[in-house]
Amino acid sequence: MEKLVKELQQVVPFKESTDIGDIVLIVAKEPQMLVYAQVTDITRDTTRKDEWWHLGLTFLTIPPQEITWTLRTAQMTGMEIFTMGGEERFVKAVNLAPTIAAVPDEPPPVTKSKEPAKGSFLKRVK
After folding, report:
1. Are 54 and 68 in contact (CB under 8 A)?
2. Distance (Å, rounded) from C-alpha 48 to C-alpha 11?
3. N or C: which terminus of the chain has fewer CB atoms within 10 Å of its end residue's CB?
């Protein structure tokens, strides 16, 4: 599992935190699974002394499946590989924000055409 997680970290842009609305990648050894889910809720588990959270997830499968897992912060943010029912799991939010391209020193030249391009539905009105 550790080798797979390291390989995924090379190709998937992960986030450091997990918030409601995030898309998380879930990896499981048994049953073998690599699936995306949307975080629908994060609620503190007040029945435990330590910091545990109820993580509401909607698996992006057909049909979508809603589940709630109770995890520690390190488990739901990908800092720790954990087990459920004796099988290893990994959960980490994916960064879907567009990457910002380098801004050129000079903007590209703007060319203005007086006539609309052929096949255009726009008509010049004076």
Report:
1. yes
2. 36
3. C
Q: How far apart are CA 52 and CA 65, in angstroms?
A: 22
Residue-range domain boundaries for the chain: 2-93
pLDDT tens digits, residue range 26-81? Answer: 999 888 889 999 999 999 999 998 889 999 999 999 999 999 999 999 999 999 99
Q: Which residue has the tokens 């052929």?
A: 118
User: Was domain 2-93 assigned CATH 2.30.30?
Assistant: yes
Q: Which residues contact 36 (CB under 8 A, 6 or more apart)?
A: 23, 24, 25, 26, 59, 60, 94
What helix, strand, coil percent values describe the chain, rounded to 5?
Answer: 10, 35, 50
Global pTM? Answer: 0.73
